[in-house]
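Tip: read the tokens left to right.
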């Protein structure tokens, strides 16, 4: 079994260069200090990016989310979005990449004077790491789909652990995934504190009933760029969509379901808590929205 992050192996990834705080180094030499706040505490934020026909998809939106996260954790990296974009492009150029790459942009508070929680003890220089790998979703996942299992680990409100902040601290989400794996799932379906279906551990969740698309209110789930694009596509194409509070009983009546994320786009779901959904994979609405999303990617990349 594998989750929504499953990818096809690519031999081109053997000799890539990684950006580490201004330097481009071979991947087997990419290092950060054991005193780095990201390693010690998960003190940092990150973004995932897709390279599509020479274009970093929805880059402005991703950078807006990154810089909002940096503001939330009071971290000034000393680079404007334009300057950071230039460093990303330098990384792509060093690897000769034009298409089909997945990037991880990671920013931490950097090295600290000592191993402790206090952010005032940092040395004043953030750590910025950019990895760029040739990664495409495994083609089998389109017809195999994901098995979701509901986790006992709940999504949390912004005043606790904000799900909308792309924090390096992912332990609660990893615990949810481990819970789902133990129950036979590929990925965890997570509820909010009120018992309503909210999110998966690494993706956002949508389900379909009678040609209407449903998803959570967004109050407790990831601030997903792909989620927002799918909601906008529904509205653009006249597809009925409802953002609301739904319980597991509602979701059990679904005709089909899918999850969304930067890496996989729209990934079909085959079952929830052992119940197989009735539509063959990918379901008709999933197919329709996948096609619309592919067209949106080409539109953003300027592909004719």
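Filled-in amino acids:
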């Amino acid at each position: 079994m594998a989750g929504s992050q499953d990818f096809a192996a690519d031999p081109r990834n053997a000799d890539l260069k990684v950006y580490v705080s201004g330097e481009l180094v071979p991947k087997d030499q990419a290092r950060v200090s054991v005193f780095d706040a990201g390693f010690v505490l998960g003190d940092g934020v990150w973004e995932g990016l897709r390279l599509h026909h020479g274009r970093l998809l929805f880059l402005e939106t991703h950078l807006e989310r990154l810089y909002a996260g940096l503001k939330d954790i009071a971290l000034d990296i000393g680079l404007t979005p334009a300057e950071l974009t230039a460093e990303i492009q330098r990384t792509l150029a060093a690897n000769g990449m034009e298409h089909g790459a997945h990037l991880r942009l990671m920013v931490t508070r950097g090295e600290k004077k000592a191993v402790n929680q206090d952010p005032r003890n940092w040395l004043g220089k953030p750590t910025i790491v950019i990895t760029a790998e040739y990664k495409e979703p495994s083609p089998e996942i389109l017809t195999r789909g994901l098995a979701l299992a509901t986790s006992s680990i709940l999504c949390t409100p912004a005043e606790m652990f904000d799900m909308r902040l792309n924090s390096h601290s992912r332990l609660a989400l990893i615990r949810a995934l481990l819970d789902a794996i133990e129950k036979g799932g590929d990925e965890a379906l997570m509820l909010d504190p009120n018992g309503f279906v909210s999110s998966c551990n690494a993706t956002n969740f949508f389900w379909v009933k009678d040609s209407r698309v449903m998803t959570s209110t967004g109050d407790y789930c990831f601030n997903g760029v792909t989620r927002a694009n799918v909601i906008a596509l529904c509205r653009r194409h006249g597809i009925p969509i409802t953002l609301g509070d739904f319980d597991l009983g509602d979701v059990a009546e679904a005709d089909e379901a899918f999850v969304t994320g930067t890496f996989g786009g729209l990934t079909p779901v085959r079952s929830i808590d052992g119940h197989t959904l009735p539509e063959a994979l990918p379901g008709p609405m999933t197919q329709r929205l996948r096609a619309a999303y592919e067209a949106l990617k080409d539109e953003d990349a300027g592909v004719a």
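The helical segments are 37-41, 59-72, 81-94, 141-144, 171-182, 225-236, 248-251, 284-301. The two ends are 37 Å apart (CA to CA).
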